[in-house]
Specification:
Helix content is 35%, strand content 20%. Strands 3, 4, 5, 6, 11, 12, 13, 14, 15 and 16 form a ten-stranded mixed sheet that branches. Strands 1, 2, 7, 8, 9, 10, 17 and 18 form an eight-stranded mixed sheet that branches. Helix 2 packs across helix 11 and helix 13 crosses helix 14.
Length: 582
Amino acid sequence: MTTKSNPTASRTEVERLRDRPRAQVLVVGGGINGIGTFRDLALQGVDVVLVERGDFVSGASSASSHMIHGGVRYLENGEFRLVKESVTERNGLLKIAPHYVKPLQTTIPIFSTFSGLLSAPLRFLTHKNGKPKERGAFLIKTGLTIYDSFSRDGGTVPRHQFHGRRKSLQTQPELNPGIKYTATYFDASVHDPERLALDVLADGLAAGPHARAVNYVEAIGARDGGVLVRDRETGEEFSIVADVVVNATGPWTDLTNQALGRATEYMGGTKGSHIVLDNAELLEACKGREMFFENDDGRIVLIYPLKGKVMVGTTDLEADMSERAVCTEDEIDYFIELVSHVFPTIPVTRAQIVYTFSGVRPLPHHDDTQPGFVSRDYRIVPGTIDGLGTTTVLSLVGGKWTTFRALSEHLANETLKVLGAVRSVSTAGLAIGGGVGFPATPSAERDWVARYGADVGSARATQLLHRYGTKATFVIDAIAGSDSDDTRLEAAPDYSRAEIEYLVRTEHVVHLLDVFLRRTSLAFTGSISGSVVHEIGEIAAMALGWSPNRRSEEEDAVIAELADAHRVHLESEDGSEAAALR
């Protein structure tokens, strides 16, 4: 839910696009794959424009499980190419985005030795027949051995280990005593996926004036040989003419093609939901590791310590694109039951839920294939649309967070081929945003803090380094030059007024909700109250020139969206009531 901006308010980036509505490439869709493709093309010197109908990374990319992983379970689907690419990209992201991508120790509780051994070949061949069964130790051991074989680049992550019941319970005594084994391996986490995407976007924009990106601008049709777009804030419409249009709108790919004038049936996404729990006992029981297992209904389940909370997910349900994806009561019941299966002595209640989120995976059309067996791989479909003349349209089908860099490279290569251009820069091994020069050792971190932390103190500089990577220097400079210095927010002291003002002014914030859901972790961690909304609303209003009426509308919109989409209810008057599950 968004409010309409004041039509007279400045939309500088949109005005520049309207005044020069011609580009070599138009990327439609500002999720991670669209943004990654934008960055790649910008680095090649291509005149590229990106338009996103909402805020950047506000669609499917905002509903991820916060994992960068090879997808060990995809082996049963026979998707060996995808697993190999995913493991390679996981290892690469640990190096080029070390500020946001970290090694993640993952443990699988195993309740049998041979379960699933007979049904697995049938599912491998058909992907639709036979009732799913929880995998036993033999299948998991086989899969992890293959998985390890794909990761041979100098030991980016350790190889897997198996432990029997006794040692497993010594390490994690709250585990279900009915386990027979545990398997522990390493993947990677991305604690702040939205912030990583904003870094990728900033890299693209920094390539030069040939790279332009706007949010809250929607592709609505074809006109005058170009893509007709509408500024959702002012209602203004104009056409953008490009040699290549890249449709990277994820689950909405078919709807975008339809709006442009061509009916396609590429997509068949599934819905995935998550809950975030404030449960200290469960957090401690995880021992800093993700618990990852397959339920006996075939769904993959994760219990994941994150930002001092515990995230539980995910479902894999058929999605209706005409309805908004939200976490339902049935899904919450399912999650609570699953936690009790792994940690039976730890009580979990609805009152501990501080946040929920849900989204639709951009999966291909899959007829009667079980959702869990739908391919997670991607493909690029070229075509034309009558209203766009000779423009080539490249539709992206599929894609996931882990492979965004490789996918973007493939999509950019296809685009360059159409343009008759050649690649001049490789993104493989190219550090992203605040990952440039990120200290790799404790001593290097101390040196960085000593060098840049004089204006804010070592503790604050360390916090900002972990929050923004080496781009924290820009935040520190903004704090040093601010009239409010580093005065902490009264209602959210982990952030300061100058820091929030910097984010609002420099990170394409259009609505107050953008700050809470994608520029900070305040909503995810349950750190929002009416007072926080009011306090940050004041800062945003001053930075963006909002009228008192506009500010009030924005604050009301935040409260309404948190309730409608995330089951968080706030007191709208004085902010005295804490976040609570409906």
